[in-house]
Write a structure and sequence with these properties.
Blueprint lengths: L1 E10 L2 E11 L4 E5 L6 H9 L6 E6 L2 E2 L5 H5 L3 E4 L11 H6 L14 H6 L1 H5 L10 H14 L4 E5 L7 H17 L3 E6 L2 H7 L2 E6 L2 E7 L5 H8 L2
Parallel strand pairs: 3-8, 3-9, 6-7, 7-8
Antiparallel strand pairs: 1-2, 1-4, 4-5, 9-10
Length: 231
Amino acid sequence: MLSVQSVDLFYGAAQALRQVSLEAKPGRVTCVLGRNGVGKSSLMRAIMGHQPISSGKIIWEGADIARLSPHQRARKAIAYVPQGREIFPLLSVQENLETGFAPLPRKEQFVPDEIFDLFPVLKDMLWRRGGDLSGGQQQQLAIGRALVTRPRLLVLDEPTEGIQPSIIKDIGRAIDYLRGKGDMAIVLVEQYFDFARDLADDFIVMDRGAVVLAGDKASMVEADVRGYMSV
C-alpha cells in the first residue's frame, strides 16, 4: 500500500502542497481531482521523487521512500505516466517500450503480451516512430511503457487530456482490467469527472495545495466534487 502522510512541498518560497495525505491500495483506483494549478501534479512529482518534500512521509510497502531517487523508486515497482506522455519521438514504438527495461533484472527484460492485448494498436505500429503516432496512440504507448516495468503502483497523471473519446474508453477499460487483477495500486489524476467517477474506488479533491474532500466512492457527493472542479 502507498501512504502519503501530511506532505508539504515547496518550489522556492511558494508552497505547492500543504499537509496532503493519500492512500492507494492494491486492487483499487484512487482518484486525485481538482482544477488546474491546485497541486495535483506536484503531488505526483512528490510520489515519484521528482520534487523533494520538505516534511511528511511517503510510505510504500512499509518503508519510507521520501528520500529515494526516482530510479530507486522505479526499482521498487513504482511506475509513472506523466502528464504530456513524454514518449521519445525519434524512437520506434518497440524502442520506447524497451526503455521500460531499465529497472528490471535481465530475465524480465521483455514486453509482456498483455500490453498488446490492452492496446493492440501498439503491436501494429511497433516500428513506427513514437512522434508519428496520434496523441491518443502516444498515451497508450506511455501507459504500455510503464506496464513493461511490472509495476505494483501505477501513477497516471491526466491520461485523458487531449485524447479522442474512443481511446479514452480504451484507457478506461485498461485501468479497470489492471484493477481487477488485484495486485496493483493505481493513482489516477483527472479533470474529466465522469471518467474519474466511473473508475474511482477512493478519491481526494484538492484545492490550493490542500485536500478539501476525501473518501470512498460510496461517500462521494457529486455536486460537491464538481464544485471544486469547475472554473
